[in-house]
Request: fold
Amino acid sequence: MLKKRKLNIIGTPVPKHDGKIRVSGQAVYGHDINLTGMLYGAILRTEHPSAIIEKIDISEALKLEGVECIITADDIDVNNISYKRDHPILKKGEVNCIRDEIAAVAATSKEVAQNAIKLIRVEYKIRKGIYDPIEALEESSPQINKFISGKYKNKNTAEVFKYSHGNIEEEKKKSIVNVSRRFTLPRVTHACMGTSNITAHFDKLSGKLVLYSSTQVPFLYQRDMAHALKMNPSDIRIIQPVIGGGFGSKLDMYPFEPICALLSIKTGKPVQIIYSRQEEFIASPTRQPMIIDIACGADKDGNFTYRDIKIIKDNGAYTSWGATTPFVIMQAFSSLYQVKACKFEATAVYTNNVFAGSFRGYGNPQATFALERIIDLLADKLKISKAEIRLKNANYKNEITGQGLHYETCGHIECLEKVISESNFYNKKNTENGRFRKGIGLASMLHVGGGAKIYRSDGCGTTLKIDPYGYCTIITGSNEIGQGSETVLAMIASEELGIELSKIKVINTDTDIKPWDVGVHASRTSFVAGNSLLGAINILKDKLNNKAKQLLNTENSDFIYQNGMIAIENANEALALDKVVREMHFSEPSELAIASYFYEPLSQFQNKEFKGNVSGTYAFASQAIEVKVDTYTGNIEITNVHTAQDVGKVLNPLLLDGQIHGGILQGIGYAISEEMIYEEGKLLNPNFHNYKLLTASDVPNIHFYPIETNDKQGPYGAKGVGEAPLIPTAAAIANAVCDALDIEVLELPLTPERVLKAINFKK
Amino acid sequence: MNFNIEIPASKNELIELLSEYKNKKYRIGAGCTDLIMELRKKPEDDLTVINISQINDEDFNNIKLSNNKIVIGANTNVVKICTNNEVVTNFPTLKEAAQNLASNQIRQVATIGGNICTASPSGDLICALMALKANLEIIDFAGNKRSVSILEFYKGVRITDLKKSEFLSSIEIDLNKVNPKNMYSGFIKIGTRKSMECSVVSLAYHIQLNENYKVISAGLAFGASAPTVIFAYDACDFLINKNITELKNNEIDEFANHILKYASPIDDLRATAWYRKQVLFNISKSILEEFSKTN
Reply:
């Protein structure tokens, strides 16, 4: 007899579906692909960040045995890439940043390809580059990117975002305290453990191209690749091998990918390009560096009155998604905590630096850092507690913000209260005067939690089938990039259909098979793909229920699915699920146990003023971070991280913990150690020796408190969780360090040397 | 990065190989954790790597106690050093330096001989061994042995006293004159990360006291702030016969200055010279301050 239970699988710590193959080394990453007759590609990049290319001589390289093909800009008929179409795949006539691709080789071995690259002679006329975006905005500066239309007055302006709500002048009058600061945020990189890779296989007979690619957005990628190569998108098939880390770095298509396709098209053979670690540092996208000018005020009761923000973003020489981060940044400024008026302007400026792509948080860590630092300064001026000022202004359930974000559920206040009490915030006053100083800092964050409607569709398709043996296959448009989406989808199917996890397969790697999805970004996969799967399950269950009704000769269709059986609650008779499926297939009228569903979130497009309810739901988090600073060395020890996050509903506590730990460590790296150091446009630390990515031994005590607000839009009430953990971390650490040392922090990272300088400056 | 490999199975085979390669280009590698990085950066033509990691020799690969000395075979890996009882009890400075070297994975293969012969100005084991005034036993291609103090071993940036066709065979450290409870010994490593870190500044100290806290022997060395790891002679002399619990603030500053005066750091990506000097001074002070606090 089956009895209804609330939830069997959802909320339990199911290990990752792909965990075993990953830890046992059996996972096939892009680096492991080896096709018959495959050639190896390599790319020649510029030696100078800004130069005229006077001559390219490939003759010596062509003579090398094993070299099958060399291409330069003159050999290809392609379109520019990037959403602004301002990025040539191979550069002709000039180079504008240190990662610029000049030529590419396909050869029979990696060594030959590398040696051929060294034999290509390029004559440059070196120009003075522009590496400071403020300098790039000066009238006298030359135009850096020649492919943009004259949309903006300034020739080096790539993109401008303007937003406002409320009456800022009125609010300024009501303010009794005002604070303004300039914050500078560094360039950091994703540092995926799997370096960038692609294998392209063009079949001359059919004219079709297969790409084994680590992209996070296969369907957009298919479209972008087709545009670049002047092909039909449907002639391009994208297959995703196991991906060794995404974090946003694979949200755009970059030149090495069409280059690899072109080498395959030219040679008619499969070609593979794999970045070395050094190449990964030099030529993969970065987080967007920014200069943020912010002015804020509060009234006599501590209510936030206005925020006035101007941001200059170093866009680098070409445009990638980094330029569009203001979509997210302006949300933090307009809608994190209540604020009556907000004026925002962000300008992306071309320089001769490398360009920025998207990176977990999408501008939000930068924005949150500036905002949460200034909230501490406002509290200091008002002489009220840093906890009180936040609680007073926190977001609340059913709030509709100035930008039009509608918080149907909102755990902001609960998150704040939780970390304030768990960290014993009010009693952690810094009274020590010795070598080591302790401090505590608070910060919150707001992020989309139910996708983000920026493309024409923010949806996801699912096809679901159950075979005659009771096994279930989920064909989902969404992708697995290590975040655990396969596992969560399998759990949902198991929960709803009563099929054990080992009998559920997830197919998600092939654009020729799977239905459309916009891709992995905006913390959207569990929410969007989960809802899509639930939609397909409902359709399939209707079919199964009908057959079960017929077989059991009942009118009742309130079936329970458990342990591979279907039954009416408390009834004596139960049917095996596989038997029901067989009856569907093999008895008249024959029907497959298959269903398809497309889920489109209820979110809206924003209007031209960037107003509108852009996400299905919103996630909130607060962190209270304790630090101990060594005034002898400037080292910051993170002693405790208290983090509370409105996750809607915990779907899998194990995977959630993984996201929290990984995110927080990435946030700590952003706060205290990671920085790409450039000199005249050249990267000086393209290695882990000098790029201080933190390691497992740097993980502090992390105390995680999930807050469940059960959003009715989400699957089982869940919200997106992936990006949130790192967003407030740098802000909370900076606030804690300021609390410990009574210093100003205006830039990141807080390296030991920066901290020691600040201590000495204070003396 | 292409090279030939020779894999001797015994010390004698190594000696034979050194004789054979007298006039050829070779490098000796054990764990190769530094060597491979170096060759990747700067490949050399016609190079042979003599991989000594397979040498099966009890003395060469282990730590032994003999005649009031601890003898560490040059091929001993770093894990053995930080877990060996004699080292842990007698030479905390060496244990702490070993324990914080690179990462657990690297410590499994990296060897003490490799750390010494790579001669990095920031070599952590070098720094601790200097504070311990260790002696190095060196063998040449003919099997002749010689001994040199580690304090005399370094001649410049990554230049050692080791001649072509010689190899480092073992490291000897005299046992302490006092019992371990009268010893004040440790290693301070400054960097950003807790592992996989190359010292930005390091300081090793090994101080022996009598029953009344009077210093009877001192070894102090620092790393990453000069072309080589440096032994701070004057700072050691300064401490001798002083009661370590009765030092005044100005004496502690004077002590730190006796260390700092040997520093000639450079600006590099990891830190500026300014930072290195500040920190070296501060952590030098901290040794004596911490002692007063804890005793």
User: Anything to note?
Assistant: The interface with chain A takes residues 103, 190, 192-196, 198, 200, 269-272, 275, 278-279, 282-283, 285-286, 289 of chain B (CB under 8 Å).
